[in-house]
Amino acid sequence: MVNDDGTNRADSSAASPTSAITGRGRLQAGTIDSSTGIIDVPTFVWGRPTSDSDTTQRSGWYLDFPSTGERQVSGISLAGSTLIFNSLTPNANTTTSVCGAGGGSGREYRLDVDTGDGASRVSTVGLLGESMAMRITSATTSSTTDSTGRRHRTVTTQSIAQGTMGLATSSTVTHDEIAGRLSWRQIHNYQALKER
Length: 196
What we know:
By secondary structure, this protein is mostly beta strands. Helices cover about 5% and strands about 35% of the residues. The chain has a domain at about 1-30 and about 45-60. The strands form 3 sheets. A 7-stranded mixed β-sheet has the order 3-1-2-9-8-5-4, with no helix packed on it. Strands 10, 11, 12 and 13 form a 4-stranded antiparallel β-sheet that branches. Strands 6-7 form a two-stranded antiparallel sheet. A hairpin with a 5-residue loop joins β8 (about 105-110) and β9. It starts with about 25 loop residues before the first strand and ends with a helix.
């Protein structure tokens, strides 16, 4: 995840430090524990360093996949602040077709957009396509409406991984969002106030 403002000047340019990111040296590196699937990105301050050695701020985060040949080729879903995506790992055994049901594997990744922290798990359904993130409406709850017409809603999302050997569901992601009226205040006793 990078903080890219769309300009084409390198971030080492004297003209502006808020420009295109020159490389991975300006990003915070994350690590994946391949046995537990836990992803850890050390805490950092978002910003635009003007050199790789400026560790007071980072222009985002990145991580390298743990398996040889692993790649991410499908879309990414967003559930609240959680990125959900799948990777492909073709089978290194040349006697097995990579297009067949046993032709490879992959991982499902769930990462926090801001911090990069998260988890991954090895696919149980072979080569993976894009995850489908679906809201579980029966698990959605809302607070009572306050005097401004605003409510807090808790939304639960579950992703479904589709692979060459079928479908698999994963654990749910829960996040809060603001719902209801957001831009003006409701006055319940308008007439009484008007007559004063």
